[in-house]
Design brief:
The structure holds 2 protein chains of 2 kinds. By secondary structure, chain A is an alpha+beta fold. Chain A has 10 helices and 12 strands. Chain B folds into 2 domains: about 80 residues, Beta-grasp domain (Ubiquitin-like (UB roll)), CATH 3.10.20.30; about 70 residues, Orthogonal Bundle (DNA polymerase, domain 1). Classes of the chains: A alpha+beta, B alpha+beta.
């Protein structure tokens, strides 16, 4: 028989996780977990509901950047003043493409990254180099989101840990970001590829001083394209440089061979086109800042 | 073990005991008789089970009933007042925005949530608001027209 708990504080949630460990299932929006319960025979010993835990629902800004509580809904990310501003706007853009209005009203940022599947919200967060803060009765720790995923459906979260928040630092002034989600339908569909790029430029707006590119649906979890990124670092930004980078991106991804949505060769062709478009957009956004 | 919950559905309070693994749509239909809430795909992909939970559209097939404890729910049964149809319902009838009818309840509730938040939506706003509700009959054109008309009439 499944026990159900609705802790009223993060501390209480952590004590329950410590007590039940692997037997506990954390229930946030439930939009994925309820399906596992209904159709995949998932039977945890206990459910720990954090969907109404006010202490985990926030989007806060300070001089360093923004922090998003794990139980914040995707709908909240889609329209908050802090996630629709400057480089962070890619978070809101990804949120607006997510699932459907009904799903966005329930699904949470913490839940979406903890599923470690085709997470849409992880794409901009990876490109913005987000960190994940985990809490347990043993204490707290912070890990980069790029090291949070441990393989398809797995993360580095220990059974007694709760994801408390995701944080993103303010990018430098001469930087830009862009997000593109390619899917057959605009709602209620998984992406063929989701991509987010981030570029920081030197004071002449010519040299790339930092580059990050994240994609989903091209590997078991959302990934950073490290080879593509390093091909851009320190180089003069140009159409040629971006075209060469896009070719590396098409090589670097590891698309599934058995996907009925898109063949590996189609995904590689798409990765080339989207990387090019996305980097061009990010570059234009970074250069626009000087003008404004 | 059953968990005691309280739901306010269409303005009336219900106290009941539920198994924590039962979904809200099951409890609304089977225990409380709100069969206007439809089960389509049962996986959050069609929107037939859409209800307003504290004013917001959600898929009631993806929510455990126990999670809705203390909340206020609107189903299609709660929309008409004293036998008079809601302007959205009137407009759906007028424009023939209903064919098989299976998506209609969810569609109207998504539209209601939109109009509650934005009384003067554009056609694009409407299309976005109903993008989580699949209709396999109408092609959406009449549904969009009906919602525009209801907005104009101040629904």
């Amino acid at each position: 028989m499944v026990e159900y708990f609705k802790p009223s504080s993060v501390e209480e949630a952590c004590s329950l996780l410590d007590r039940f460990k692997e037997g506990a299932l954390i229930l946030a929006g439930g939009t994925d977990v309820v399906l596992d319960i209904r159709y995949n025979g998932l039977r945890p010993r206990c459910l720990i509901s954090i969907s109404n835990l006010e202490g985990l629902k926030y989007i806060r800004g300070d001089e360093n950047g923004i922090r998003i509580g794990a139980a914040t809904t995707i709908a909240a990310l889609a329209k908050h003043p802090l996630t629709t501003r400057g480089c962070f706007n890619v978070i809101a853009e990804a949120a607006r493409c997510f699932g459907s209005p009904q799903i966005r009203n329930r699904a949470t940022v913490g839940g979406n990254i903890c599923r470690a599947g085709c997470s849409d919200i992880a794409v901009p967060l990876l490109a913005l180099d987000a960190t994940v803060n985990l809490v347990s009765i043993r204490g707290e720790r912070t890990v980069p989101l790029s090291r949070f995923f441990a393989g398809g459906g797995r993360t580095v979260r220990a059974p007694d840990e709760l994801v408390k928040e995701v944080a993103v630092n303010n990018p430098p002034p001469l930087s830009g970001s862009a997000y593109i989600r390619f899917s057959y339908r605009r709602s209620l569909d998984l992406p063929i590829i989701g991509i987010c790029s981030y570029l920081a430029l030197d004071s002449d707006l010519s040299r790339v001083v930092d580059a990050r590119i994240a994609m989903n649906a091209v590997a078991p979890t959302p990934i950073r394209l490290k080879n593509t990124e390093s091909s851009l670092m320190g180089k003069e930004a140009s159409d040629h440089l971006i075209d060469e980078a896009a070719k590396i991106a098409a090589e670097e991804i590891q698309p599934r061979a058995d996907s009925y949505r898109a063949s590996p060769s189609y995904r590689r062709a798409l990765a080339y086109v989207l990387t090019k478009q996305c980097l061009m957009k990010a570059l234009a956004a970074a250069r626009e800042k000087r003008l404004s | 073990m059953n968990y005691d919950i309280t739901l306010t559905v269409n303005g009336r309070r219900y106290k009941l005991g539920v198994d924590p693994l039962r979904t809200l749509v099951e409890v609304l239909r089977e225990d409380l008789g709100f069969t206007g809430v439809k089960v389509g795909c049962g996986k959050g992909e069609c929107g037939a089970c859409t209800i307003l939970l504290n004013g917001k559209p959600v898929n009631s097939c993806l929510i455990l009933a126990v999670e809705a404890d203390g909340s206020s729910i609107l189903t299609i049964e709660g929309l008409s007042k004293d036998g008079t149809l809601h302007p959205l319902q009137e407009a759906f009838v007028k424009y023939g925005a209903v064919q098989c009818g299976y998506c209609t309840a969810g569609m109207i509730l998504s539209a209601k949530a939109l109009l509650d938040e934005n009384p003067n939506p554009s056609e694009l706003d409407i299309r976005e608001a109903i993008s989580g509700n699949l209709c396999r009959c109408t092609g959406y054109a009449k549904i969009v027209k009906a919602i525009l008309e209801a907005a104009r009439k101040g629904a």
